[in-house]
Amino acid sequence: MPAEIVDPVRRQRMSFASDGDVLHAEVWTAPGGDVPAHYHPQQTERFEVVSGEVVFRVGRDRRRVGPGERVIAEPGVVHAFKNSGAVDALVRVEVQPALGLQAFLEEAAALARQGKYNRFGVPRGLRAAAELAELMKRYSDVTVMAFPPRPLQRLLLSPLARLAHRNGSGTVA
C-alpha cells in the first residue's frame, strides 16, 4: 500500500489502495484511538480486525471484535469504532463504492495535523469551524457525522462553508 496518512487527533495511521470501485484501507489505531460515529449514504463498509481489540458500534449494536472477526456497516447505518486494547490495532477496511472517501479522510487528517479541531471534533476557532464545515458540505454524499444531528448540520454547514470560501481557506492541502 502507498504512503501512510497520519491523523493525530484520531490516533491513527492509514494507507489506501484502490481496486476498480473498491477502496481498500489499512488503519492502525493506537490504544484509545477511534473513528467517531458517522454513516455513508451510498457505501457499504466492511471491517476485518487483523490484530488488537476493537469495540465496534453498528446501528444500536455494540460488539468487541478481535483478530479474524468481521463487521459490516451498510449504507445509511451509523457506525464507529474504538481501539479498546492496550496495543495498536490493525483494521482492514473495504469500502464500495469508493467515491471520494479517501480524499475526505486525507483532508480530515490534514486538518487534524494542523490542530483545527480537538479530540471531540470541536473546531478550534471560527476559521477552523468554517474549514470543517466546508469539508463536511463538500463530502456530504460520502460521509455524514452522527453529531450534531443532520437537521442542525444542514442549517449550519452552508453559511460556515461560505465563510471558508470567502476567506480563501476552502481547500486543505
Could you name the CATH topology of the largest domain?
A: Jelly Rolls
Taking pLDDT < 50 over at least 5 consecutive residues as the criterion, the unreliable ranges are 169-173
The SSE string, one letter per element, is EEEEEEEEEEHHEH
Total strands: 11
Average pLDDT rating: 88
Tally of structural domains: 2
What share of the residues lie within helices? 10-25%
Strand order of the largest sheet: 1-2-3-10-5-8
Gross morphology is globular
Determine Rg (CA atoms, Å): 16 Å
Please describe the biggest sheet, giving its number of strands, its sense, and whether it closes into a barrel.
6 strands, antiparallel
- How far the N terminus sits from the C terminus, by CA atoms, comes to 21 Å
Q: Going by CATH, what is the homologous superfamily of the largest domain?
A: Jelly Rolls
Structural class: alpha+beta
| SS summary, helix count | 3
CATH architecture of the largest domain: Sandwich
Could you tell me the strand content as a percent range?
35-45%
Question: Which CATH class of the largest domain is shown?
Answer: Mainly Beta
